[in-house]
Amino acid sequence: MSLKRWVSLFFSFFSPLRHRVLILRLAKREVSSRYRGSFLGLAWSVITPLVMLAIYTFVFSQVFKIRWGSLEQGMGEFALRLFAGLIVFNFFSENVTRAPNLILENTSFVKKVVFPLEILPITGTLSVLFNTLMSTLVLMLGILVVGKGLGLAVLYLVPLWASLLLTTWGISWFLAGLGVYLRDLKHMVATGVSILLFLSPIFYPVAALPAGMQRIIYLNPLTFFIEQNRHILVDNQSPEIHQLLLAAGLSCVIASVGFRLFEKMRIGFSDVL
Length: 273
Known about the structure:
By secondary structure, this protein is an all-alpha fold.
């Protein structure tokens, strides 16, 4: 097989984007339907993360008296660091917990209509991304309110979140395909995500952990994205270029493997559903 053929197969996960008009239309419909009929409408995309942030901040900084490593800071500083981590985790967790049911909830697309099923994880990811963008804007406003500046480091959010997006697509494709055959998968994923919340450096910095535990935490694929999102936004620190390149490479591998597995599993969808 030629090198060009190998490259084409590896980057085949970009092929669903040829349906970008349909993807954007479905994502827009999903966002609007989520808040249709509610009094506050899209404002809930800001209110919900703020309420959860207030609860987490109070419990962990006031009840459990957790401090951010050796840093001395008030509730505002703690809330910013907590929120920066929660934004990444909430984006990832909402997508992967929905993924096992994506095909099961759209069986008509499998049986009756010629429909590009591979766009469903992408559509779901983009609809969640809207809430993530709103939360990020709230975080940026909070950073300005407490007197911390936003520098050129925020430009690194683009490649960072592009890598996270590809990673989420890959995992979502795999879970969406497997969920058709393994109906218990949704419960397994929900339990795993709950455990992942406390194995991610959201409520604590990685540097505060013992060296042996740090190696375990870095096995969590979210650790890099949570730490870098926090460093870029809250600390105004630019990530190392080689780290971003490595993350981009690994995210492409995850997306490629996830997409190829989904394509293989979709062959039997109509027989199972």
